[in-house]
Write a structure and sequence with these properties.
The chain is 17% helix and 28% strand. It is an alpha+beta fold. Strands 3-2-5-6 form a four-stranded antiparallel β-sheet. A two-stranded antiparallel sheet has the order 1-4.
């Protein structure tokens, strides 16, 4: 299966934070919908790299990505608002911004 072909069938998405998540504080979480194959290679492999370069990446990729930014408090479930345009994404990636910088790989949310 080629993950870089438009085949996103995501109809709903929930983000769940456990009670003790992120040392008891809200976690910043971005879901990135990428619409061009060339944009996928530009995204960093970790949350800290995403959040430190987010403004430049969003500006550089312009209409080729959409970002849903969330603040997820511990012990909550957040429903992500879905738009029809997300079905055209070639890749969906989640980035968490934890207090501790270690161990924050990007999460592949593509089918």
């Amino acid at each position: 299966m080629n993950l870089l072909t438009p085949s996103i069938t995501l109809s709903q998405l929930q983000v769940v934070a456990e009670l003790d998540a992120n040392q008891g504080t809200a976690t910043q979480f971005d879901i990135v919908f990428v619409y061009e194959k060339s944009g996928v290679a530009l995204l960093p492999p970790t949350g800290p790299a995403w959040f430190s370069n987010k403004a430049a990446l969003v500006a550089g990729l312009a209409n080729n990505i959409e970002v849903v930014s969330l603040q997820v408090p511990p012990g909550t479930v957040v429903d992500v608002p879905m738009k029809k345009s997300y079905a055209k994404a070639v890749k969906v990636i989640g980035f968490a911004n934890y207090i501790s910088a270690g161990g924050q790989p990007a999460g592949n949310l593509t089918n």
